[in-house]
Write a structure and sequence with these properties.
Chain lengths: 127, 174
Amino acid sequence: MAYSEKVIDHYENPRNVGSFDKDDSSVVTGMVGAPACGDVMKLQLKIGDNGIIEDAKFKTYGCGSAIASSSLVTEWVKGKTVDEAASIKNADIAEELALPPVKIHCSILAEDAIKAAIEEYKTKQSK
Amino acid sequence: MNYFELFDLDPVFTVDTANLAERYRELQKAVHPDKFASQSEQQKLLSVQRTAQVNDGYQTLKNPLRRAEHMLSLRGIDLSHETTTVKDTTFLMQQMEWREMLDDISHSNAPQDKIDELYDSFASYEKSLFNLLAELLASEQEQDDKSAAEQVRKLKFMAKLQDELTRIEDDLLD
């Protein structure tokens, strides 16, 4: 299967790979996995007191499309408010990376990772 | 297609594998294309289709993970085409950790020891998942079927890990 140039670029030069200090109280983590392919994705967001995402990091075990999807969203969420980030749709990711239909689930995984991280943020806020 | 019916077996997870293999041989013989060589084209085609069905059924029922998936699909839970995301953090953390350990094998001084350790860890975790799965499938309650589907999803991650580990071991031997 041919990957698009954007997927290859993100795959070969993934942005924001790694982890934040998990004891940092401004960091939230979204962990998601896709049973169909066994991909596992961890997305961490560093969120300021004003609710703006200051930084993002990811670690993904999976195919090129899954790595590219998570790499892309780390770039997209930076500087956004939590609500803006939560409105990122998998279709936007799939379109940007020109993902073929069989790889759409990789973009769904990335969307769900953002949602899971933000869910943790909201839970933390309400405490 | 209900493969349990095709093989005339009770639709239970604890399949008697010797019995299954015996039924497979009988069915294979009964539908084999050689038997239909002198018959009409339609009969021949049917025999080829039946043979494919019997082979597929055997592969499905022989493999515990595929067998469980088949049982759940018969109960209305289709896991083969789903794009459900797993969000069990504890489970996923463990997956991440194991993936990291797989990555570290090639930098290790004693890679075979690491590989053996991981085989053991994977096997014992899989065994506990399969035990739970067998219990859940036996109850035939809707709620338990949903939990069983969760175990199948987890076992799919484990199958992926096993494949990776086998690949790493093969690369090491090259």
